[in-house]
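Both lines are given unchanged directly below:

***
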Amino acid sequence: MRWLRLYLRARRVPLALAGTVCATGSLWASWPYFSDGQTVNARVVSVAALIAAVAVGTTLGGADDALDHTASVNWPARRAGHVLLAAAAIVALLLTSTLTDVRFEPLGVVARNTAGLLGLTALGAALLGAALSWIAPLIWTLVAMLPWLGPSDQVRLQVGAWLVQPAGTTAATVCATVLAVVGLVAYALRGCPRRPAAETAPDR
């Protein structure tokens, strides 16, 4: 298991996990002060999933680009496993709130938003690198949060604002699934792009 500890440390996973727990815990704790309801709404669920996805994005690239692309390691399988385990961890973290009075629910919205945003993050990492993987999920979340967007009967709005649609909305679920699959496949096969040597050279 030593390789696993080294891998997690090299990817800064403990730091990302701690930051995610603190941020989502703050959202959970502050919800009763802003609402009389016990179930956190889809917009706040989206913010929680975004925070977690951005944190995961920082772990998608290592310090050594050459090592991350070496043929001696089955990197596609490791990358896919990394993203899938991160998705499971985020959903599990948010659903632990169901043990309390204030809850991130329903499961369909939590799972859909986590999968879609994490897929966007993985796609951003594959195209732009881990350091910029947050751009796409942040922009889409901000768009979905616009006050005039919300649950809608129009398919184009269900797709554009899929983050805030009710659970079971077919167009929103399909959009999130496509983003999740495309992001997972792109990152698993390509990984993060190689950075210029000047960016990865040790400080002297």
The two ends are 33 Å apart (CA to CA). The CA atoms of residues 124 and 201 lie 23 Å apart. DSSP finds ten helices and two strands in the chain.
